[in-house]
User: Fold Indole-3-glycerol phosphate synthase from Candidatus Halobonum tyrrellensis G22.
Amino acid sequence: MNTQDEVAPAVRAILDAAGTREGGDRRLSVDARSLPDAFAAAEADGRVPVIAEVKPTSPTTEGTRADDPVDLARAMVDGGAAALSVLTEPSHFGGSPEALERVRAAVDVPVLRKDFLLREEHLDVVEADAVLLIARFLDDLPRMVAAARDRGFQPLVEVHDAAEVRRAVDAGAEIVGVNNRDLAELEVDLSTFETVAPEVPDDATLIAESGITTRADARRMRTAGADGLLIGSAIMDTEGAAGDVAANTRRFTTAGTEDAT
Assistant:
């Protein structure tokens, strides 16, 4: 595992917990829904391609949403989300493989498994359409990318700088997410995406992650080259009903159609 000593204590605690988790007891084989195709369909429909995230809580947010994840997921799709991300990390994000399984059965858009996957057997816990692989924490990134593909998953390789982009490309990544959050300090800077995006090959599907809180942020990331946006807290952070999640999602999926903040 790379640079474990250079991450924030909260992230190190998550990694330590992930390292003790067991994998699945059988090798999965998935018939995945295409994330790039879902982005293209959203574009054709005049929507900004958004991956809306079902995230009950996190170390960087306050409180916990106890809504049924299926209700939230359906509301996000009603709001125009091209795809969904579901946290399966239990200790620090309140997620579970069971929540992802239920969400994927309830919607017809691609579902990304968001977790800290450190070993090949971690891929075999639950079926999803895509899986997050964080380049910083995987010494043998090519092996994990290949293992994910062998099971039918679409690997979304997360990077934070140009060196990690090179590792992702060398590992064969076709979907790349640039995380605006520095996992060493947990600070967010949208200029990270603007700096790193030019390093990503044009034929890759490029996703901006973290820190997108306003429609202006969404437009900024799209202008910088994002094919899609991964948005969690700005959609989930509401005390209202799941319907408010639909409205929050719609605020971003229509960010390119009219002027608003």
User: Anything to note?
Assistant: The longest strand covers residues 154-159.
